[in-house]
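Possible regression after last week's pipeline update?

I re-ran a chain I had predicted before the update to compare outputs. Posting the input and the new output here so someone can diff against the archived version. Not blocking, just want to make sure nothing changed silently.
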Amino acid sequence: LPKVGHEPLPPTVGRNVLGRRVLYLPGFFTYARHIVEVDGKKGLFRGLTPRLVSSTLSTITRGSVKKAFPLEDMEHVSNKDDVKTSLRKVVKETSHEMMMQCASRVVSHPLHVISMRCMVQFVGREVKYSGVFSAIGRILKEEGILGFFV
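New output (post-update):
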């Protein structure tokens, strides 16, 4: 994983708006073509499954936390209400949102780590992680539970 900053394709020479010669890194389609040449079309979808599961878990967790800890219905703050009341409302809503975000990140982050590792192994030409369950087992075996939160 130390090669994450590695650029597999050389930059191309171009001109900026002022006409000066500059180097540009290849764009999305150039990189996609390179991945297809090296790994085939399947290579474009590395890490997609854990990423989809991560997003799904995040959404489910946010909904569950919202149901378990509902924000009380607060009256609409009008111009006549004092600053303390409106500030209290903002703090309460912000705290509630932070709690939902925190819970959903803690639940979904392990799968985000797996997704990133699946994508990054293209750079190092590794074949360490082949699927979600094998990646979970390997990370647990090699790094323990804290390996999911790096």
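Follow-up from reviewer: compared with the archived run. Residues 39 and 125 are 10 Å apart (CA to CA). Marking as no regression found.
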